[in-house]
Amino acid sequence: MSLQQTITGLIRDVPDYPKPGVLFKDITPLLHDAAAFQSVVSAIAEQAGPVDKVAGLEARGFLLAAPVALELGAGFVPVRKSGKLPSETYAETYDLEYGTATIEVHRDAFEPGDRVLIVDDVLATGGTAQAAASLVRQAGAEVAGLSVLMELTFLNGRDRLADLRIHSLVAV
Fold first, then answer.
1. Which of 28, 31, 39, 91 is the most exposed place for a label (fewest CB within 10 A)?
2. DSSP β-bridge partners for residue 13
3. pTM over 0.90
4. Is 115 a catalytic residue?
């Protein structure tokens, strides 16, 4: 079985979550399978190239980004929802497919010139990834790329991110 088949077989669709009309992609069954989880982490790391930091987007992006950072020998940077970080931050507000949100990163999370891989579970409309890239750039670092477990192509998120190198393990 290919990695794509494994991933799609282990991701559960949850209709009407977090609100009616949204089809939520639940990755927890994939995380329960140690071999599949390791394969996903390795596949993301293999395509990354040399990076100094891996930025994981709250919350499910943390679950992928932290082990990818370890595999790459890079630092891990959490990109959090507004109000969750204890020190000075950069903040960026963006639109979601079902509302708006603000994410933040510590001002000292990146060194100028750091190459940063942004990791998340799903690329949907592209708003979260675009906001994360903006935060990395505000800190003087370089976005080396965006890696996601799954890309929801029908939402055209890639169109908003023409300036990023994007790698998705599965596109649906």
1. 28
2. 25
3. yes
4. no
With residues binned 3-state (H G I as helix, E B as strand, rest as coil), the percentages for the chain, rounded to 5, are: 35, 35, 30
Q: In Å, how far are 2, 5, 17, 50, 132 from 170, measured between CA atoms?
A: 11, 9, 21, 23, 21
Whether the CB-CB separation of 104 and 121 falls below 8 Å is answered with no
Of 12, 60, 71, 151, the active-site residue reads 60
Residues forming a β-bridge with 143: 116
Q: Residue 8 in contact with residue 26, Cβ under 8 Å?
A: no
Tell me which of 12, 46, 97, 111 is the catalytic residue. Answer: 97
- Look at residues 153, 149, 169, 131 and name the one whose alpha carbon lies nearest to residue 62: 149
Residues 126 and 151: beta-carbon distance below 8 Å:
no
What is residue 60's three-state secondary structure?
helix
97 is catalytic: yes
44-48: long-range contacts (C-beta < 8 A, 24 or more apart)? 44/68, 44/119, 44/147, 44/149, 44/167, 44/169, 45/71, 45/72, 47/147, 47/167, 48/72, 48/117, 48/144, 48/145, 48/147
